Amino acid sequence: MAKVDKEVEAREAPKAVSGVREDEREMKLVGAMLEAKIVDVKPQLDFTTELGFIYPVVEQSVNAKGKEAVAIVESLTDKGILKRSFFDRLLLCARCQSINLRPSTHCPKCSSGDIVRGRILEHMACGYIGVEDEFAAKGKYICPRCKLELRTIGADYRSRGVLRKCRDCSEVFNTPLLKWRCLKCSSLSNEDEIDEVNIYAYSLDESKRNWLEFELQPRVQFLEFLRRHGYEVTENATVKGRSGAEHSIDILATRDDGVVIHSVAIGVEIARDKIELDRILDFDVKAFDSGIHDKV
After folding, report:
1. Who wins on pLDDT, 38 or 172?
2. CA-CA distance, 5 to 215, in Å (whole number)?
3. Separation of alpha carbons 214 and 204, rounded Å
4. Whether the Cβ atoms of residue 169 and residue 178 lie closer than 8 Å to each other
């Protein structure tokens, strides 16, 4: 059995990398990350695009945009090659799904957007409540309702602090109702109507680096060597043994010479230390039960 002296946290199933090798763009992106040409894949907000964000390094390295770029990094994440981390949360227009939204404050009583924020005064005699600017007149405070002058705070009037007042219904309040105006379709949506989507950054799972370096480089060269010598190569082959049991072979190479079919079973182990004898014997038993005499 071939031994590769590489350190990884655990032995990984090769199907994921086999899938990467079948996708030229995935393989190219992972290769660039292994060579440190790309450190990580981070999104960049772009209001002009359909999604509202792009992955510049994916566009530049493999010429994939929008949903196509997302599909590539998500596929690599599903295969355990990339790690995903939260980057930001985007708000989407409920009508057109644009991320180009502007927050808009409204009166919680009548929903009017015609509200003013300022120091709120209350005339204690007539009970009128309004913004300080409503009372100010030629250096004095004059009640806009009863026209009396407010001379002394605490006796004629009191301050209720900085609040908001609705110009339509006169409601005074502290916390406004938040709505969102879409700058693309102009629709106005309540906060609970807005859609949300998380966007992510991606980085190479460093625990897979050594394994990937073998799988995407020496392994590929070895497979090409076999094919050049006339072998038909099957990775992760399933072979039914004479005992009736099904065995998994990392690489099965077969060549038909016209008289006899030569089969070679190749097992791959990625390990830091020497491979245990039990694993070699297990592989030998699988090959024998499968009727394969040549094994590596």
Report:
1. 172
2. 13
3. 15
4. no
